[in-house]
Amino acid sequence: MKKYYILLAVFAISLSSCEKLLEKEPTDKISLEDLFRDVDGSKTALAGAYKALLNDYHYDKNTMVYPDILGGNIKFSKNTNLRLDDVYNVIQTAQSSSMNDTYAYLFSELNNVNNVIKYTPTAVGSSTDKAKIVAEAKCIRALIHFDLVRIFARPFNFTNDGSHLGIPLVLQPQLFADPLPTRATVAENYKAIVDDLTSALAVLDNTNVGVLLNGFKQNYFTRASAQALLSKVYLNQNKWDNAFNLADEVIKTNQYTLLTNANYVSSWTGRTPSSESIFEIAVDFVSTGNSLGSYYDATNNSTYRMFAASNDILNLYSTTDVRRSSSMFTSVSISSLPYFFTKKYAAGNALATPIKVLRLSELHLIRAEAAAEKSTPDLVLANADLNLIRRRGDASASTLNLTVKSDLLDAILLERRKELAFEGNLLFDLLRKKKDVTRVDATPIIKNLTTNDNRLIMPFPENTVNANRNMIQNPGY
Question: Where does the record place the SusD-like N-terminal domain (predicted)?
């Protein structure tokens, strides 16, 4: 009997469009034998894996909004037809959490990627192409595991060695007859993520633009983007020397250049990657009203507009910071109250813009933090990287020279919040730095939470726990 591969997005590769990775309607089922018969089938499956990242339950909403709405950068501009409001109000339950769909969806993504990794080596075709396909698929798998472990488990440094419970580790395609998975430790989760990226780096090189020929190199995992992701992974493990070395290497390749203050705004308005974009998720021309940008669209007064910037984040910027300018936020009056919406994501059809996952500015901030924390601290370089990003945002900002390590680290964390606002990082930064969540411009009854509050970690879906006696629910649910 043929095994079947349930595809999230299997499309034919387009040869004519540089933005549409895929162009045919999804196929419900394709036998594994047929799909992975040759390398072209593997390319189709890999393209589907990239395409699947752009989904409401993944980067097209939940995983980009959740860390900012719970961390304090986002408030609601209306009271009805909301998304993630249970998370905002800290009342999520295992039965009905808004993040339950994210858990299920990301694990279905993992299953599809695992099929690519397992079956591509036996496909007919170029061994070089097959190796690159597997390498890129491992990067996608690492990214998905990284997202899951940060949402559904405590940060690595919650225990000294990461021995606390993480997420189920899925490294093989899962069939209905397979034993139900158990939760691995967070250390085991991170080891698998590091192993995938390290394995991929043995294949990818700096000239590689991805085995898929459409779009831009920033739409695929290359050596540099895999290194950038691995640097961020090490940062989340407090492995400072490793995080520093990888960020430093990517910066020094000069493949990417930091945008100037003058051209920062324009980098968010089109589909062509900017000079500092390292990895971003492409959109196609059929992107519709429920793209990520729709939820921030100040002109859309119907179903979608809802995620306004809180005064907590707005007040962190100086009046001369380009990141706070009217070019980066749209102001609109709703019920006689002013609301501001980020312009980092445009909405609808040909105007929808890619989702930026890794940027050079973040690598400078990773290098800054790691330089201050590594075995031989370099506070001079840490200050230099921090000032580079601060003064790119605000050319009139003073030059900092912080000689007290704790002050420097606080300044770097603050700059991460300003630079990476609405990009899905805030809560994870607060948790890994053991900082409390403090929300002033917020409406929930529960605004502030200490770093160890159980509600800052999402529950596993109740139906998953009930169906699997091996699963242990997170505390408090």
Answer: 79-235
Integer CA distances (angstroms), 108 to 90, 174, 386, in order: 26, 9, 39
pTM, two decimal places: 0.94
Give the relative orientation of helices 240-252 and 360-373 as an angle to the nearest 10 degrees: 140
Q: pLDDT tens for residues 398-454?
A: 999 999 999 999 999 999 999 999 999 999 999 999 999 999 999 999 999 999 999
